[in-house]
Amino acid sequence: MTLLDDIERLVTCESPSTDLAAVARSADVTAEVGTALLGVEPERIVVDGRTHLRWRLGSGRRKVLLLGHHDTVWPIGTLARIPFEVRDGVLRGPGCFDMKTGVAMMFHAVASLGSADGVTILVTGDEEIGSPSSRELIETEAVQHEAVFVTEGSADGGALKTERKGTSMYEVTLHGRASHAGLEPERGVNATVEAAHQILAVARLADPAAGTTVVPTVLSAGTTTNTVPALGRFTVDVRVRDLDEQLRVDEAMRRLEPVLDGSRIEVTGGPNRPPLELSSSARLFGLASGLAGFELTQAAVGGASDGNFTAGLGVPTLDGLGAVGGGAHAENEHVLVSELAPRTALLAALVKELS
């Protein structure tokens, strides 16, 4: 089977993270594709109903971890609307860029080597929802290796991702007191109004100069149009370039104070992924630049990946080694076919150099 054939097999098996049966089916297909190329079946690791796959190749000490995921953000049925296709040098289909092409590339890269002793491939099934069941597995595996290569899609223009922001996620719940909105609103404590105060306070925690974004996102409050809301809540997405900023925002979130008399605030959540800082990837990017037969560029991006976990443990990590294309999580998701061969060859060269 060609690389394009294997990408098609993976993309045409839909695998939204929240559908456990779909993720299990995708794990079966991914295992079949990997086994056919590597000659070894993976360990199937099921945690909280989610299926992750691990190939530990050879018997020597662990050297290189290839890390990816087979779940996507696309619901079942998306293929009927956005089918897999290759036309005019562009490959399309839900999850093709993020990141089923990268999964196929790692199989083909390792299969092309004469020996893969010391190489581990880990393909998880819950990255798109924050890796709740795979984080411990990823971190336990990473610290046994000398380097981690993440085959998420590249940044714009094919740049490798040498910096990723860390992420924190919060839910802020506002507790008030209900009353009739027309007869006696003064007897109530309006959770919607309290939410408005807190949303503005949270938004002010952002620091554009430091690259810190603090964005209130989903908001809900109230039950009926004629009742002072007794309960409201909103979620907050935080992105930071360094751990100091992640700690600053976390401390500020936990110090939020109610504005309205009689209201109460509850903050849950916190840091999810530490930042992937340049110091974690600089040496590996230099190695990649020397091995590539073409000019490589690097980029800092706001999105996080499982590479944040491995970098946060101090394991050298290089990300964005998968497909060149764009449109992650969008209907224009695509992969440039002409870049598949050189990028897969680069990945193979990196693995060979370090293993």
UniProtKB/TrEMBL annotation:
* Entry annotation: catalytic residues: 71, 127 (proton acceptor)
Asked if the record carries the keyword ATP-binding, the reply is no
Q: Does the keyword Transport apply?
A: no
Provide this UniProt record's keywords sorted from A to Z: Carboxypeptidase, Hydrolase, Metal-binding, Protease, Zinc
Residue span(s) of domain Peptidase M20 dimerisation: 162-254
| GO MF, any single term | carboxypeptidase activity
Task: State the InterPro entries in the record.
Answer: ArgE/DapE_CS, Bact_exopeptidase_dim_dom, Pept_M20_glutamate_carboxypep, Peptidase_M20, Peptidase_M20_dimer, Peptidase_M20A
State one Pfam family annotation.
M20_dimer
Cofactor(s) named in the record: Zn(2+)
CDD domains, from UniProt? M20_CPDG2
Q: Which Gene3D superfamilies match?
A: 3.30.70.360, Zn peptidases (3.40.630.10)
- Name of the protein this chain belongs to: Glutamate carboxypeptidase
